[in-house]
Amino acid sequence: MDKWLDIFSPKTIVLELLLVGICILDDPSVISVFISENPLSRAAVDSATHGVIAAMSWLLVTNLQMTTRNLMEVFLSGVLGMVIDIDHFIAAGSLSLNAATSLTKRPFLHNSSLILIIFMLLYSLQQCRQFSGILASVPWIFLLAWTSHHMRDGIRHGLWFAPFGSTQVIPKWLYIGVISLCPLLLKAVVMLRWSDSDHSRTGSSTDHQGTAVI
Ligand SMILES: [Zn+2]
After folding, report:
1. How far is the CA of 162 from the centre of ligand 1 (A)?
2. Which of 71, 144, 178, 187 is the most exposed place for a label (fewest CB within 10 A)?
3. What is the Cα–Cα distance from 172 to 178, expressed in whole angstroms?
4. Nearest-angstrom CA–CA distance, 5 and 189
5. How far does the centroid of ligand 1 lie from the alpha carbon of residue 169, in Å?
6. Cellular component terms, GO, for this chain's entry (predicted)?
7. What is the pLDDT of residues 142-195, one digit of tens each?
8. How far, in Å, from the CA of 128 to the mean position of ligand 1?
9. What does the H/E/C string look like for the chain?
10. Pairwise CA distance, residues 187 & 193, whole Å
């Protein structure tokens, strides 16, 4: 029972509030107060925000246990949250920021259908090969990081589910709800899969390993 309380531990609540605060303040009207109109600065802040939200999301899943493995997973989540936008440059066929941000259609990694497809491939691979360590968490880190990126982009462009079509622009309340709830849901899945035999591998609130293998 105690382990379920970890989902709503004080440090989890503080991090959740921080995450929600970032999502609320992550608005062009707020950012323009602090950041110049320089496109490079804006792109850097935008990319960093994707990374911070993805990293904080996985930090919530790890129950804020600062093990080396968890920190590496948090770092990986941040990188995965940012790397999607590389498709702007690939689609533009140029390293020019102007070209990358002037595309007439959304680049391929912003197809939200890919999230489910890639996640299922990674999860199937994980089930077949029974990876351990960080590799075992990769499917879930990917799922959380990419979902957060697509949802954040969705408040400006909607979600694009090729070949089916696109949604309207996502309301900000829905975006914040998904961003704040997904880590907790994933954390609950981690809890459900904990068993005595897993403790040596996954850690728990009592052994303080705090790893998040799913
Ligand atoms: Zn993007």
Report:
1. 16
2. 71
3. 10
4. 14
5. 14
6. membrane
7. 999 999 999 999 999 999 999 999 999 999 999 999 999 999 999 888 777 654
8. 31
9. CHHHHHHHCHHHHHHHHHHHHHHHHCCHHHHHHHCCCCHHHHHHHHHHHHHHHHHHHHHHHCCCCCCHHHHHHHHHHHHHHHHCCHHHHHHHCCCCHHHHCCCCCCCHHHECHHHHHHHHHHHHHHHHHCCCCHHHHHHHHHHHHHHHHHHHHHHHHCCEECCCEECCCCCHHHHHHHHHHHHHHHHHHHHHHCCHHHHHHHCCCCCCCCCCCC
10. 10
Burial label for 124, CB within 10 Å (0-12, 13-18, 19+), is exposed
Percent of the chain surpassing pLDDT 90? 65
Rounded distance from Cα 210 to ligand 1 centre (Å): 31
Q: How far apart are CA 132 and CA 28, in angstroms?
A: 41
10 preceded by a cis bond (ω within 30 of 0): no
Give me 123's structure tokens: 């999860």
pLDDT tier at 34 (50, 70, 90 boundaries)?
confident
pLDDT of residue 203: 42
Distance 151 CA to ligand 1 centre (A): 9
All residues with CB under 5 Å from ion ligand 1: 85, 153
